[in-house]
């Protein structure tokens, strides 16, 4: 058990590091190629993208992962039961996106250049859902190599797109460029899924008639999935509403639309990706520990869980302190090295110390998930989402511009972390 955990952690750490480096290179090339205006527009639609992906999946990948980890069902039938249901739900939400695209872009985000990109999201969702379902199966089996390899290949495909295709479409109208960037995800998700299918054991034969939903398995999947999706949907609705609320309030306070989009793009396109870069380390540890938590909690071995959490949390805090030091003193140099600009350094300095708590959050979230405390995760999402939106709403009227968004991120991190720590102590008493 211990050796399996260590091996899983190592695989996830290496894979997470490679993935983060690839993602960073992709962002650098994208930022340099698009320029701040086009990058800001792309970042503006990401909350919408994220929301509809989570709505389309309704928590089924996490549910599948946990049911496979428990190993008390026919995993082949379980897996093949979830796929047709997921596709059916995806069709519903894809239709909804197409119908509401113009309203979202013009009435909510105040930019008609992103209408086509929002429509493009509808075509990407099914491919993303299938890839995530496939990954979650291997994750539940604690076979981390296929899971990690598929993500790495997916990012390599995106990187090749940025290098080979993006420069050749920059002559197009902005709305077409952003739409093509969204649609490019289809290719990377298809190839990622093919990689995962290759790792399916050779003795397992699958035909079209096997894709038959099993009522019991679907019920169990929804029982686990819906509370999880409730948590994700709340978070993503908040993420979706943030730029809408921020834009509308700041416009009302006479800030220009150009200023809002520019500064929002700097924060979400330059600063946040840099701050989240070290999370490959914390996420790898957190993902690896979840199957262990599930099994130990079922055996009521709370002491083992506490000991493992204390060791891993200490490691994450030390790692976080090192990254904060680097961002505080060398952040400007790193920004210039990566993006050939120092835009956002003022935001980076303010946010960096609080991201130590952000790094710790992942291990507590996966611990609660492993213990099956999905209702608590749902509550945390509600608290987190309401906090961010309320802070934006209230602080914005102090006329401090985009700093109302910065403050909302900080307060949200603090409150969410404290609540998670409190709940972990309660359940592991």
Write a structural description.
- With 429 residues, the chain is mainly α.
- The chain has one domain.
- The chain has 14 helices and no strands.
- The chain has helices at residues 2-57, 60-70, 75-108, 115-140, 144-169, 174-198, 215-252, 257-276, 279-298, 302-339, 345-351, 355-370, 374-395, 403-427.
- The radius of gyration is 21 Å and the shape is globular.
**Structural class, please?**
mainly alpha
Q: Cα-atom Rg, whole angstroms? A: 21 Å
Major β-sheet profile: none
Number of helices: 14
Poorly predicted regions: none
Mean pLDDT: 83
Structural key phrases:
single chain; 429 residues; mainly alpha; 14 helices
List the helices and strands and how they pair.
Layout: H1 2-57, H2 60-70, H3 75-108, H4 115-140, H5 144-169, H6 174-198, H7 215-252, H8 257-276, H9 279-298, H10 302-339, H11 345-351, H12 355-370, H13 374-395, H14 403-427
Concise structural overview:
With 429 residues, the chain is mainly alpha-helical.
């Amino acid at each position: 058990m211990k050796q399996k955990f260590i091996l899983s952690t190592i695989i996830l750490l290496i894979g997470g590091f490679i993935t983060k480096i690839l993602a960073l290179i992709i962002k650098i090339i994208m930022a340099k190629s698009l320029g701040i205006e086009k990058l800001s527009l792309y970042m503006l639609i990401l909350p919408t993208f994220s929301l509809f992906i989570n709505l389309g999946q309704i928590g089924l990948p996490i549910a599948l992962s946990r049911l496979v980890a428990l190993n008390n069902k026919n995993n082949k039938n379980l897996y093949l039961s979830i796929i047709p249901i997921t596709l059916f739900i995806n069709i519903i939400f894809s239709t909804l996106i197409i119908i509401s695209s113009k309203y979202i872009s013009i009435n909510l985000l105040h930019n008609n250049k992103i209408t086509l990109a929002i429509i493009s999201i509808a075509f990407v969702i099914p491919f993303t859902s299938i890839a995530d379902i496939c990954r979650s199966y291997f994750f539940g089996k604690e076979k981390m190599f296929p899971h990690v390899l598929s993500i790495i290949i997916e990012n390599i495909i995106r990187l090749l797109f940025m290098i080979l295709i993006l420069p050749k479409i920059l002559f197009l109208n902005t709305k077409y460029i952003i739409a093509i960037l969204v649609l490019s995800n289809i290719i990377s998700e298809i190839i990622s899924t093919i990689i995962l299918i290759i790792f399916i054991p050779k003795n397992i034969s699958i035909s079209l008639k096997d894709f038959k939903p099993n009522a019991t398995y679907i019920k169990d999947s929804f029982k686990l999935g819906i509370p999880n999706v409730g948590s994700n949907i709340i978070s993503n609705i908040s993420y979706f509403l943030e730029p809408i609320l921020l834009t509308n309030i700041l416009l009302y306070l006479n800030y220009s639309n150009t200023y809002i989009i520019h500064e929002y793009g700097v924060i979400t396109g330059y600063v946040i990706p840099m701050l989240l870069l070290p999370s490959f380390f914390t996420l790898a540890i957190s993902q690896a520990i979840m199957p262990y938590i599930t099994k130990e909690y079922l055996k009521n071995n709370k002491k083992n869980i506490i000991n493992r959490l204390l060791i891993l949390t200490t490691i994450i805090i030390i790692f976080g302190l090192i990254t904060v030091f680097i961002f505080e003193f060398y952040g400007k140099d790193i920004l210039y090295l990566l993006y050939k600009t120092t835009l956002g350094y003022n935001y980076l300095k303010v946010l960096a110390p609080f991201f130590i708590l952000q790094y710790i959050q992942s291990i507590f979230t996966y611990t609660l998930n492993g213990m099956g405390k999905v209702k608590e995760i749902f509550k945390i999402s509600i608290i987190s989402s309401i906090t961010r939106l309320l802070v934006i709403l209230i602080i914005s009227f102090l006329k401090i511009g985009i700093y109302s968004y910065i403050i909302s991120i900080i307060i949200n991190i603090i409150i969410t972390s404290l609540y998670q720590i409190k709940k972990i102590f309660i359940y592991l008493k």
